[in-house]
Write a structure and sequence with these properties.
The complex is a heterodimer of chains A (315) and B (499). With 315 residues, chain A is mainly alpha-helical. Helix content of chain A is 72%, strand content 0%. A four-stranded mixed sheet of chain B has the order 2-1-3-13. In chain B, strands 7-8-6-9 form a four-stranded mixed sheet. Chain B is globular, with a radius of gyration of 24 Å. The N terminus of chain B is likely disordered. Classes of the chains: A mainly alpha (315), B alpha/beta (499).
Chain lengths: 315, 499
């Protein structure tokens, strides 16, 4: 087995660049604002207005279920710090994000390396591994979480029972239920990591690997000292995208455990959904959503700072 | 010239008044005295209700269409969304439907806020209100003695048990040897626990898999509220005190008093005798566990009766007995702040959820036709057909529906029909019955309690810690909504506003 990637293409076609430049010169002279303003106004209306409007909501007691809206200054923001359910939801969300991202990355990388070795049928496996990503998360939650992992009716516990193994409380035990969610998420989204990492592996240059082979490096040495460091840019992107998605996890949890048992699988987004759409508490719901945004921004900033330092060290 | 102009004034006034009275969305109601077959020709009436249940009205809606020329559109909304959709539509003055098929808790909020139309006197005769027990007339359909709700469903948590197992001589002998008293339908939660423990692990259907003692409703976002309060009422609803959830003078929550705490501790203990996945049992999961033959005891609504005789869903036809939910001999008295010991278990049946009813919102675009349709659906003739139709989710809510012969005709044995109707009748007639909370803020109070209760059930907190958290959250909710206003609503909901 070897980790040496096959090179798919050398350089981007130069003609594309020059064509783009020619296209740019064709509209020279036309006022840039004429073309930019409609798009800019549309973007402002569709993104900035809701953003500012929802920020304004955080300072009110607006509840859909009751008439009247009063200005409440920072009351909702203060409430964040006394909210035990939110604290639990943040901890759960961090757990799901960490556990699922790591597992998806490791499995995705393993699958990508395996598929890269296959001479024939690579496209078939690429398609097969992509399928889970195309299924609705609600369907995945139902089929995996509610049917396969059904504790008394599902086939998994039935097989365990027939093998004489102990019954597993997949969704009713607060220690096990979070892992059931992670398993469902990993099943669905490992393919995302697989696709990105496979593309990354295929685009790696061949020369360092050939030189390493000539120098007698083992497969493990090639992987740890050449393949993995060269994959860091793709890894950074893939992990960032996936972890940002996981911070917003709601669909699988809603279907599989509805946040329970107790609050063992409650996520921040599910809590926002509860507050805003079940209780109608738009003011506090928006505040929690903003708190999540702040957490995600801090995370992304820290993560990018950390990875930049790591990349600089490797370089 | 002047006189000629004034001649048009009376006609103009008449025109304006008639336009105001019939303007869509005005909320004004004109009594439907016209019985002609085309009195609502071309009028479209939309009914919004819980998906999986509201579709059941189609047969009777078709009848109404034939009788009036109107047209009914049914708008099914997922069960978990219906309350929020209706309340959001109300809060934002948005039309959702002409008739709401909605739970009593949410209906109470709409009545308290004066968002629904009072049932006109001339249509009340249709409803057979003299057959409706006081508990429903007073707490389900009315607010401050004004009738807003149209009867449809009656909800009372009750005990369902495997009659065949409890009367089995072998089990009876074994049980007596083990517990020192006769095996019989449980009267108290302690007996209930003994019976559940006794049957757990027994393979009475000889399928090689162990069965369970009980099936209950502990799932958050589903019916943990009802499952817990059905049990807690026996411990915490003192017969001398009309209030249960709050102090009616101050809205101080009682949810963390020793009665509720003891009920939660006992409930946690009882979980071990249920199927291992019971914490994720929704309404259907609970029902299937019992009618599927896997549990000996069950706490559910009266739906289990018709379901148990449905050969498509049940393996326990003819094997089920029915009773009032058990009580407790130890009862917490809030007034004295002490436990009291009763000679007989204190039974406090819990009208959890309170039943589905119809209301016509003031936002209705066709209030006259909507009220006509709703009162047609709520008439005794339609209700009799609805309660005996499996899958409609409609339970008896009036005395004529508790005539055992109706249930014998529906497929019950004579004995089961007697027992079924008696259990419901005894629950309704119990002076200590608890009707569900139906004041503004119910989604918040409910979610807070379900979080606390399930935290205790899975061991994230002790019963006392969990319920202390719930009490603190309830206080915060009350403060946010306005304590004085909430006190008034709570007192009105109990029918003690004037006291």
């Amino acid at each position: 087995m070897t980790f040496v990637p096959r090179r798919q293409s050398d350089v981007a076609p130069r003609s594309a660049v020059s064509n783009g430049q020619r296209a740019g010169t064709a509209i020279k002279g036309a006022p840039a604002g004429f073309f930019l303003n409609p798009a800019a106004i549309l973007v402002l209306m569709l993104s900035l207005f809701p953003f500012l409007f929802s920020l304004g909501m955080t300072f009110t007691n607006w509840n859909l279920l009751y008439p009247g809206v009063d200005f409440r200054a920072l009351e909702n923001w203060r409430r964040l710090f006394d909210d035990e359910t939110l604290g639990r939801a943040v901890r759960n969300t961090v757990f799901f994000t960490t556990a699922a991202t790591i597992l998806e990355y490791v499995l995705g990388l393993m699958l990508a390396i395996l598929v890269l070795q296959i001479k024939r049928g690579q496209r078939f496996f690429r398609l097969i591994f992509l399928l889970p990503m195309m299924i609705s998360p609600a369907a995945v939650g139902y089929v995996i979480g509610r049917m396969l992992f059904s504790e008394t009716q599902g086939p998994i516990n039935n097989i365990l029972f027939r093998l004489g193994l102990p019954y597993v409380p997949w969704t009713s035990n607060p220690g096990v239920a979070p892992w059931t969610i992670v398993v469902a998420d990993v099943w669905q989204w490992t393919s995302f990591m697989f696709v990105l990492l496979l593309a990354g592996l295929q685009s790696l240059p061949g020369e360092p690997f050939e030189a390493a082979r000539v120098d007698g490096a083992s497969n493990w040495q090639i992987f740890t000292q050449i393949t993995f460091p060269l994959l860091v840019p793709v890894t950074v992107t893939a992990v960032l995208i996936r972890s940002l998605e996981l911070f917003k996890l709601i669909d699988l949890v809603r279907v599989i455990t509805a946040g329970g048992p107790g609050t063992a699988t409650q996520t921040v987004t599910l809590y926002v959904y509860d507050l805003a759409l079940t209780r109608g508490d738009m003011g506090y719901g928006a505040t929690v959503a903003y708190a999540l945004l702040i957490i995600v921004i801090l995370y992304a900033t820290f993560y990018l700072w950390l990875t930049r330092r790591a990349v600089e060290k490797v370089a | 010239m002047k006189i000629r102009k004034l001649r048009h004034v009376p006609a103009a006034i008449l025109l304006i008044v008639s336009l105001l009275l019939t303007a869509p969305g005005s909320g004004a109601f004109v009594g439907a005295q016209d019985d002609s077959a085309s009195r609502f020709e071309g009028v479209q009436v939309t009914v919004a209700g819980p998906a999986g249940q509201v579709e059941c009205i189609e047969t009777w809606a078709n009848q109404w269409e034939e009788e009036t020329g109107g047209q009914v559109n049914i708008n099914p909304i997922p069960f978990s969304d219906i309350d929020s959709k209706v309340l959001a539509a109300t809060g934002t003055d948005t039309f959702l439907a002409d008739v709401y098929y909605i739970g009593s808790q949410t209906a109470g909020q709409l009545m308290a806020g004066d968002h629904v139309i009072e049932v006109p006197e001339e249509l009340r005769d249709r409803l057979g209100l003299d057959q409706i027990p006081d508990i429903y007339n007073k707490y389900q359909l009315s607010w401050n003695d004004k009738l807003y709700g149209i009867p449809w469903d009656g909800d009372m948590l009750m005990l369902n048990y495997r009659q065949d197992l409890l009367s089995d001589p072998v089990y009876q002998e074994e049980f007596k040897a083990q517990y020192g008293y006769d095996l019989a339908p449980p009267e108290s939660w302690q007996q209930y626990a003994d019976i559940a423990a006794f049957f757990t692990g027994k393979d009475w259907d000889n399928d090689g898999a162990p069965n369970y003692g009980l099936a209950e409703l502990p799932m958050r976002r589903n019916h943990a509220w009802n499952g817990f309060l059905a049990r807690a009422a026996g411990y915490a609803k003192h017969p001398d005190d009309p209030a249960f959830f709050f102090d009616p003078e101050t809205m101080t929550p009682r949810i963390n008093n020793p009665g509720f705490v003891k009920a939660l501790e006992d409930w946690k203990t009882a979980l071990q005798w249920g199927p291992p996945d019971m914490l994720s049992f929704d309404w259907a999961g609970n029902a299937q566990a019992f009618v599927g033959g896997r549990a000996a005891l069950n706490i559910q609504w009266a739906d289990i009766g018709p379901m148990s005789i449905d050969p498509e869903t049940s393996v326990v036809a003819g094997k089920v007995g029915f009773g009032v939910t058990p009580g407790s001999t130890e009862v917490w008295n809030t007034a004295s702040g002490e436990w009291e010991t009763f000679d007989e278990p204190n039974k406090a049946p819990f009208a959890g959820f309170g039943g589905w009813i119809y209301v016509v919102p003031k936002l209705s675009e066709q209030p006259e036709a909507a009220m006509d349709l709703a009162t047609f659906l709520g008439s005794p003739g339609v209700r009799v057909e609805a309660v005996t139709t499996p899958g409609c989710g409609v339970n008896p809510n009036s005395t004529e529906l508790l005539d055992p012969s109706i249930w014998v005709d529906a497929g019950f044995s004579e004995e089961a029909a007697q027992e079924y109707t008696k259990a419901i009748q005894d629950s309704l007639a119990n002076p200590n019955v608890v009707f569900d909370l139906r004041i503004p803020g119910i989604p918040d109070y409910k979610d807070a309690l379900e979080i606390g209760v399930t935290k205790a059930l899975v061991g994230e907190a002790t019963a006392q810690e969990a319920l202390d958290e719930v009490a603190a959250e309830w206080e915060a909710i009350t403060d946010r909504l306005g304590r004085d206003q909430q006190v008034q609503y709570y007192r009105e909901s109990l029918g003690i506003a004037a006291e």
